[in-house]
Amino acid sequence: MVSQAQVSRREFLKTSTQGAGVFIIGFHLPLRREAQSSPSEGPIKIFKPNAWLRITADNEITVLVEKPELGQGSRTYTPMMIAEELEVDWLAIRVEQAPTIPSIYQGLRTGGSGGVASTFTPMRKVGAQARELLITAAALKWEVKRSDCQAKNGTVVHRPTNRRLSYGELVETVSKLPLIDSHEIPLKQPGDFRLIGKPIPRTDVPSKVDGSAAFGIDVRVPGMLFAVIARCPFFGGKLQGFDAAAAKTVPGVCAVFPVAPLPRRFNTAGGVAVVADSTWAAIQGRKVLVSRWEKGPGSDESTETLRKLVEERAGAPPTFIAIERGDALGVLASPVKKVEGYYVSPFQAHATMEPMNTTIHVRDDEIEVWSPTQFADEVQDEIAELSGFSLDKVIVHMTLSGGSFGRRYQWDYAAEAWQVAKEMMQPVQLLWTREDDMQHDFYRPYNYQRLSGGFDGHGNLVAWSTRVVTTPISRSNLYTGFTESPETLKDPATIAALEWYGADIAPYSIPNFRLDYAPADSVVPCSWWRSVSSSYTPFAKESFIDELAHASGRDPLQFRMDLLANKSPETARLRAVLQVAAESAAWGKPLPKGRGRGIACRVGGSYSAQVAEVSVDDDGTVQVLRVVSAVDCGIAVNPDGVRAMTEGAINFALTAVLTGEITIKDGAVEQSNFHDYQVLRINQAPEIEVHIVPSVEDPSGVGELGAMLVPPAVANAVFAATGVRVRRLPIDPQLLKRSQS
Amino acid sequence: MAHLRLMINNQSHDVNALPETPLLWVLRDTLGLTGTKYGCGMGLCGACTVHLENEAVRSCQVPVGGVGTKRVTTIEGLSSDRTHPVQRAWIAEQVPQCGYCQSGQIMQAAAFLAKTPRPTREQIDRAMSGNICRCATYQRIRRAIQRAAGQKA
Asked: Min CA distance, A151 vs chain B (Å)?
């Protein structure tokens, strides 16, 4: 393993992509950094044991959170972990966003459901280090045995005499003590937790019910201007020319100028910027702007051409074989009872409620950036690189984000905002309108999976093969000329993480298994979408298991249990969540006609099983009535957070199952707003039950987990209700209508 | 440009704006009342919901010139201290995740409950179906509305 110091952050991103929901980002704990700044004169007023914690002489305790807050609860779980070990009243803690100084804070990013897992030990150590030092300080002050002292509720107590000193009273003494090495800091046992494992109200909720929570779009700086960019309507094209005259007559418009495309990892497509004194004026200016666009390669691409291409690639030789255990192809070619299936999932947009935006003020000597990003350090890197400014002259404020779901992993919109702001030398907020956001996203890849399974003469499932075809994330942005390096494209771990993670059938015990992959190149930019490839690989895998169960005349739950009969910690945890979900959902209990239940399960980081119950109306309309989810995520740091994430992820994925689809025509996205990209609304939202399976294992993520199993659970339920196998998402009611007549 | 006097959150504001400018952008860009959010600009998502007198309206669809003397209430004016029953219920049920749509959800729910104090689940779903939440906190929105209606302690 190469040490992190030897690997640049971008390389680190690429090489660390084999985690659960895909990205597990390591957390380095430089506990000694920004330790006591040792003021030379006067009494010490603030104890700063490390970069994450400040305790003042007035007993003000501040936790600096480096993970972005996108709605997933980082501003609650981080202080919980610190407060647990620090032994303070939870309500006494103030929370601040850590500044973007990557040399100190190496976790200014989140992804792959890795936030809790990667901070669980380091952040507890942050609190424990301070606690241990405060105990020592009190013992020194009292001149008593350290072992007679105990930290409790923001004080150190001398047990024999019941004397107490508040942490604030110890600030001066404790600040003079040498720090404790990270590996020597004692942590509490799970059985002693007071906060971790309790449903704690989120620290950011009050500000989110009175309008005071400030998102990127809410940044207001004196003298600021507002901008939008007219973008090429089709992928791969470029600006031929424009006439700014009409736009400039719109009251409030102050500048119209071209913006060059940036052929970089997360490209910007370029276009024409319209800058005005209000967002509305900028939008009006863009409306009357005359621009001409030249078509490029890929301008004839459509969903129809892609549909043919992926089918063709499913039959073509693979670009590589991802997993080969035994000889699946050989066995499938021998006389076995063979079952075959295919599954298709289309492009999806992120459609975060807060569209992309960034505010930037370029000054002579520094650049100040306010961005709703899940990757503040990359925003800083990118703008420093583009501008030639040194990192310390690019000040990035990571604001709250109005949803992300993977979209804010790309920093294209911040780069674009810099392109506009540098022309103005005034603060400028670049806003993507909903139409920009929907038509110029980095989409969930279009994908096609072909599967074969074979039973021997005794009815044992002995072979399975899966071909995954996607419009690859790793070769996204082809039209700007940017691709990943040839080495990256050959690296199985990278391709796996981006394109097929979740397709491995393990821990189902099937002796012969093969997974291979072939890309289908497209001009449509693709990227991470909540749960990445696990948003579609379980759809194929867990639907196909259902097909195999029915083909062999067995109950889908029992069929899974039989394939998980091998004794291992993994199969035990998976069987446990299956059992809990099935029992809670009354699996096996008869339902009225037109209704059905479907089950699906998954391991990978966390363990989960889901049972969906649906009704299918005579006209083919699918109503998802209820989803029961069992989750084993190790220690549930904030159980209410686990529930909230799971409820949200289930509903998020339902959009992709019921209505959501981005289609392409003439190289352009056909949808433009919420009327034609229909996302789940409250009247379609099922009752959701989340059962957390108790565990003392270290925590694993849940941000994406809930989304992974919804497609197969619902598709299997539809099969149970109608006998129709769902092969394409979103579900086409017409197919179900026909089946009922 | 027209000179307009608006009554927002019980305060009088003088603004210069083109009468066709949507109220949303006057609130956000001219007056700095950023609690009201832009989501779609087409009245499809409800993020910009405010009250015009006692009606919930999509402020992206209301030309500022048409507001006249009608009282506008935004999320900032719903209560001074988060004590409106809907806000309290939103906190109790821990509804928000990212929180971006929640100003609109709360304003919609408040107007709805004022007219339908004892709603059924179907009535809640109908009244709230114009408000999109991509974090999909719908189950908690339902519960919070029931709580605010006094149907759950």
From this structure: 31
Inform me whether the C-beta atom of residue A644 falls under 8 Å from chain B C-beta atoms.
yes
Work out the average pLDDT over A315-343.
95
Query: Between β-strands B49-52 and B55-58, what pairing exists: parallel, antiparallel or unpaired?
Result: antiparallel
Tell me the β-bridge partners of B16: B3
pLDDT band at A492 (very low <50, low <70, confident <90, very high): low
Asked if the model's pLDDT at residue A156 lies above 90, the reply is yes
Domain extents in chain B:
2-78, 85-148
Q: What does each C-alpha distance from A286 to A243, A257, A538, B96, B110 come to in angstroms?
A: 11, 11, 43, 34, 36
Token look-up 């704690």 returns A200
Q: Which residues of A, range 247-266, sit inside 8 Å of B by Cβ?
A: 251
Give tens-digit pLDDT for A689-732. 999 999 999 999 999 999 999 999 999 999 999 999 999 999 99
Tell whether omega for the bond before A507 is within 30 degrees of 0, i.e. cis. yes
Q: Which amino acid is at A557?
A: L
- For every residue of A182-198, DSSP letters joined together read GGG-----GGG-SSTTS
Nearest one of B35, B32, B80 to A402, comparing CA atoms: B35
Q: Provide, as residue numbers in chain B, all residues whose Cβ is less than 8 Å from the Cβ of A75.
A: none
Distance CA A84, CA A697 (A): 17
Contacts of A650 (CB under 8 A, 6+ apart): A610, A627, A629, A686, A688, A706, A707, A710, B136
Encode pLDDT of A579-638 as tens digits: 999 999 999 999 999 999 999 999 978 999 999 999 999 999 999 999 999 999 999 999
Which residues of chain B neighbour A223 with C-beta distances below 8 Å? none
Q: Which fold has domain B2-78?
A: Ubiquitin-like (UB roll) (3.10.20)
- The interface pTM score, or ipTM, of the predicted complex is 0.98
Q: Which CATH class is domain B85-148?
A: mainly alpha
DSSP track, A43-65:
---EEEEETTEEEETT--EEEEE
- pLDDT given at position A94: 95
CATH class, A317-348+443-740 region = alpha beta
First vs last Cα of chain A: how many Å apart? 61
Identical fold between A18-204 and A216-297+356-431:
yes
CATH number belonging to domain A216-297+356-431 = 3.30.365.10
CATH class, A18-204 region: alpha beta
Task: Name the pTM for this structure.
Answer: 0.94
Query: How many Å apart are CA A451 and CA A544, to the nearest integer?
Result: 8
Interface test with B, best of A210, A437, A655 (most B CBs within 10 A): A210
Residue A88 is classified by DSSP as: -
CB contact under 8 A, A71 and B140: no
Look at residue A34 in the predicted model and tell me its pLDDT. Answer: 45
Cα–Cα distance list, A95 to A65, A167, A234, A460 (Å): 7, 18, 44, 56
Do A719 and A598 meet the contact criterion of CB atoms below 8 Å apart?
yes
What tokens appear for A488 in the block?
Answer: 């990256």
Interface test with A, best of B139, B141, B145, B146 (most A CBs within 10 A): B139
* A217 contacts on B by Cβ (under 8 Å): 34, 37-38
Domain map of chain A by residue range?
Answer: 18-204, 216-297+356-431, 317-348+443-740
SS3 letters across chain B: CEEEEEEECCEEEEEEECCCCEHHHHHHHHCCCCCCCCCCCCCCCCCCEEEECCEEEEHHHCEHHHCCCCEEECHHHHCCCCCCHHHHHHHHCCCCCCCCCHHHHHHHHHHHHHHCCCCCHHHHHHHHCCCCCCCCCHHHHHHHHHHHCCCCC
Share of chain A above pLDDT 90, in %: 81
> How far is residue A486 from each of residues A12, A265, A304, A453, A533, measured CA to CA in Å?
17, 14, 29, 33, 21
Tokens 């069987």 found at = A575
